[in-house]
Amino acid sequence: MNMLHLPRIGITPDINDLPVPETEYVVRQNYADAISKAGGLPFLLPYHEPVGDYLDVIDGLLVTGGLFDIDPALYRQTSRKDYAMKPARTNFERALIEGALSRAIPVVGICNGMQLLAVCLGGELVQDISTEIDGALEHKPDQSASIAHHRIEISGTSRHLQTSAGEVHEVNSVHHQSVLPSDAYQVLAVSPDGVVEALEKKDGGFAVGVQWHPEYGVADIDTIIFETFLSKAREYSQKK
């Protein structure tokens, strides 16, 4: 294999609400830019079955965030109010995550992507932070994600990320749901109100979720996440 080959990173896009033939796949440029900066080759993954066609060629999977919610039935809860859901996207990303985990393809889930990673691993979600967590911070502020909003503290030891328990980072925040602690994964970071901000698969390959948006490069830990992800993707690629 050519050692100069850049790891191929599949990036999941959102989809707008316009009817066919005006329907568009949409993804922010900074997701792709973060992958390129860390040494990878980004690819957009249009919704397609079977997902194995993608898993055969990518070396890493980036599941992006989105302004919608995961169906509570997928994590053994009933909806407490009406949610904006995108079943086609969720079903596609869920199949990709499960397939990537089974093949030990490195995975990073961001915001909604972290929540879906947790669900795929067997966890559950807080459906609405403001009504379910007493004294919670505002996790979806009216400000740009390019601005740090609250701190997180590293609370667990990662198998892959070079972080230490007790470290504090200032990160951005754009979400109203969050992940519940679970034996299904290792909690890596929390915000001052106890909201889970990062998790990691307990065994096997690299699978990390972060609740904030590291593609904006607001915090030092953002660089660590992407560089570690690409390092693991490079290792996976070289083993093919």
TrEMBL record:
Pfam families: Peptidase_C26 (PF07722). One of its GO terms (molecular function) is gamma-glutamyl-gamma-aminobutyrate hydrolase activity. One of its GO terms (cellular component) is cytosol. CDD domains: GATase1_2 (cd01745). It comes from the Bacteria. PANTHER family: GLUTAMINE AMIDOTRANSFERASE PB2B2.05-RELATED (PTHR43235). This is Putative glutamine amidotransferase. It comes from Rhizobium mongolense.
